[in-house]
Amino acid sequence: MYTSKTVYRIKTFVPILLVSIISFSSTKAQNNSSSLQKALEEFSEDESLRNASWGFYALEAGSGRELASHNSDLSLVPASTQKVVTTLTALLMLGNDYRFETLLQYDGMIEQGVLYGNLYIKGKGDPTLGATMMHDTLSMENVFTTWLHDLKSSGIKQVKGSIIADGSWFDDHIIPPKWTWEDMGNYYGAGAHAITIHENMYRVFFQPGGRVGDLAVVIRTIPKVADMIFLNEVTTGPRGSGDNVYIYGAPYSNQRWLTGTVPLGESNFEVKGSMPDPGHFMAAAFKNHLLANNISTNGEIYTHRNAPSFNSNNARVTLSRRLSPTLDIIAERTNLKSVNTYAENLLKTVGKEKGDEGSFTAGSKVIMEFWEKIGIDTRGMRLVDGSGLSPINNITPRQLTRMLEYISRDEALYNSFIKGLPLANRNGSLEPMFASTPSAGVLRAKSGFLGNVRAYTGYTQSRDGNLIAFTIIVNNYSGSPLLMRRKMETLMDALTKTKTQ
Question: What is the pTM of this model?
């Protein structure tokens, strides 16, 4: 952890050469890092950066000594590297072993096998509920089977009340206000809900037409979302053209507008979308499960938003308590697979547990205040979501790198955290990168990618065995994303080749 001297150093650090593009903190480091200096100079002179805004910062994690810097205090759009901020803060504030819980509850009374009262599904932000995408999670059907068993064990054979999805643990804003309309409705734009089921995602299947330009027909969705209305304008694209479908739709609205193309010659072509109201879907699906398993119920389906006389503090009995995997495992998937929904749920959870409420605003405020207390100058940092999907987010390369340095001094948290950072030439977004280079199997970094944004932040090991933390963010470059990725790859590999002593 930081000493008071370390905190002071972060607060008061000022670059030695304000007019220089590249600065190094010592002559010794400069002499030993000529390959890094050359790589940074070549990168900065690239024509694709002529009109770009970009920054780079690298330091030796053990000492906090700066190795290289370019525009390190420039506020830039981080894209998905912002997930590093969210997961780091959640791990530091809540701990590796934090678990989310989901409760099945009832009010009223049970008489002769009949529940004269309501059933409640009380969500507390578990992003893994009903998902099978990671270790120690159950499918939605298995969750329902567990609840059914606990319901029968309590003697309930009939429900004379309603089934209510209580998502009041978070506020009702599923989508961060600064996300773009183009992202809403697609699977990566699922947002955050206190009741999250199957990562708030459904799959819609298309049958392309017989010729390019023909209408593609919607066949079905899995799972089936009741009352979903599709305004379908998807057509058939050329063979091999892939998924070019965009799904537009507002939160809590079952109307979805489908545009774009699916490839010719495919059958049952799958596209992923985000559930408009995860809580309502959960309650409706559970009611159907009860009816299919001889638990009769004639009550209505509600959420906390529309249930008559809803009171989140009314007296309830808990029938079942489902715990999530531990936070370190959830953080690992959040970063390794870059799951936006997980990051947004973590942001709201930090706001709920350590701030005023489970909201994007409260979570962002808690994160900013946390790092300010640590001693990181947060001027220029702007957080409006937890995933980095909004183009309104801003962070500086220095801020992000200093956060990485901070957690590297806590061995347990660091070891948990780096499991979620893709490993060069091995997995995640770095799997196709760094082949036959010193960084292969050594460098770990979270990537970020939006329109005209490329970013990487993480760690590597120098030639003399020291841990290096780094961040590089490029906004508004020219040329293709693939070419920019390759250029950034060369610069990052220079860090692995350098000596820090």
Answer: 0.91
